[in-house]
Amino acid sequence: MQKAPAAKQPDPSELDQDDDLKFLDEPAPPPKPAKPKSNTLNDIDLGEFDLTQLGPPIVNLDLDSLGTPNVSEAFNDLNTSSEEFRFSCKVCGTAMYATPNQIGDMTRCPDCFSEFSIPTPTPKAPKKKTVPSKQPDFGLRSVEGKGRMDQPPKSQADEFLRKAELELEKENVDKREESYDFDTQGFLNRTFGFLSDPTVFIVAAAPGFLFGLVLIAAGFAANALAAQSEQLSVLGAVGVVVLLGTPIIAGCLVNGLAILEATANKMRKVSQWPAFNILDSLGEIFMLVIAVLIAAIPGGLAGWGLSAVNMGGLITVAVTLASIWFFLPIVVLGMLDNQSIAEPFSSDVVGSMSKRGDAWAGMYVMTGLAGFALFVIIYVMLSGNSIGRIFVSILAPFIIFFIFRQFGNLAAG
After folding, report:
1. CA-to-CA distance for 393 and 234, rounded, in angstroms?
2. Cα 227–230–236 angle (5° rounding)?
3. What phi, psi does 268 have (nearest 5°)?
4. Helices 199-226 and 246-264, packing angle to 10 deg
5. Least buried of 33, 35, 199, 377, by fewest C-beta within 10 Å?
6. Residue 293 in contact with residue 336, Cβ under 8 Å?
């Protein structure tokens, strides 16, 4: 294989002297124009830099992962855009508008007429990429079921219920203790409060004494007529009692009605006793007489049947009084509620017997004792001596007032 001939080197002696100095006559190449310093990143030629010389950390750097804004792209978008941007006057702050091509040109403010160059707008910061992050766990317990709050432990709820039951039981015990605490002063006031008025002794003792005198007169009339016939003796005694005793009995009844009304209205005493003006109280007297007769009808019929079988006159009186004892408060309160003698029964009064059975029971107990005492008084009046008749006659109006007092307590309740 032949070698390629080597290039012939020129002989220095063969060189022309002019050729040796020829390079001095050749003009020097013009220097490269220096690039002006750029005020923007658009004028920077990134191709002149070899990023590989900076090492692997810079080459492998991912700017997008850091979210670093590309300022150069922002300015390029601004320069190529034809949209106007806003800027303010440096003197008065008036808002003005210009296009990117007018940056650096002189302008005049329309308000203060000051001249200045259009400034470069501040680039808008690009939107940062939001990376969805895992929601923080605040340690909330899961709730089972829709709309249900986190329930406390069952043991804690049971404890709350147990405490509530204990408190309720304690409250009920306190109420029972209070209900069994007997009000002695209140009981005495409700029962015998009418005696606190001194006038009661006058309006009760005076007619009682007069009625005792009437009974004595009836006894004398019966004895005087006994020689003629027994029947005439009885008629004489009854005639004296009816003629002289009816106004006295009517006065006691109308005073008792005044006590009933005062007690029902929760007044401490009667403001005016109607017996002092008996003529103005004829309507009330007639109402009470009708009420007593209506209440006595069932017992009177039963007593008449008992007398037919020779059960004795005293049994007839006892049955009649029992009938008055039971029906008189119903009839009297019914007439007062209806404001009519023709309507002795009221649905409200009868209905209250089931609604306020305790009040009715208390009234019947107290008036039952009073009725028994009145029965004893009548027995003494019929069989006793003159002094005994006067004594029991004085007690009779007090017992009548006591009965009407209980009627008033019932009406107030």
Report:
1. 20
2. 90
3. -70, -30
4. 150
5. 33
6. no
Q: In this structure, how many other beta carbons lie within 10 angstroms of the beta carbon of residue 379?
A: 14
Listed residue (298, 300, 261) closest to 281, CA to CA: 261
Residue with tokens 């922002």: 74
Which tens digit of pLDDT belongs to each residue from 171-184? Answer: 766 655 554 456 78
The packing angle between helices 313-338 and 282-308, to 10°, is 150
Q: How far is CA 264 from the centre of its chain?
A: 32
* Sign for the pseudo-dihedral over CA of 212, 216, 222, 226: positive
Q: What are phi and psi for residue 309, nearest 5 degrees?
A: -105, 25
Give me Rg for the CA atoms of the chain.
64
Cβ-contact 59, 51 below 8 angstroms: yes
For residues 123 and 126, give the distance between their C-alpha atoms in angstroms, rounded to a whole number: 9
Q: Give pLDDT < 70 ranges for the chain.
A: 1-82, 123-156, 172-182, 307-313, 384
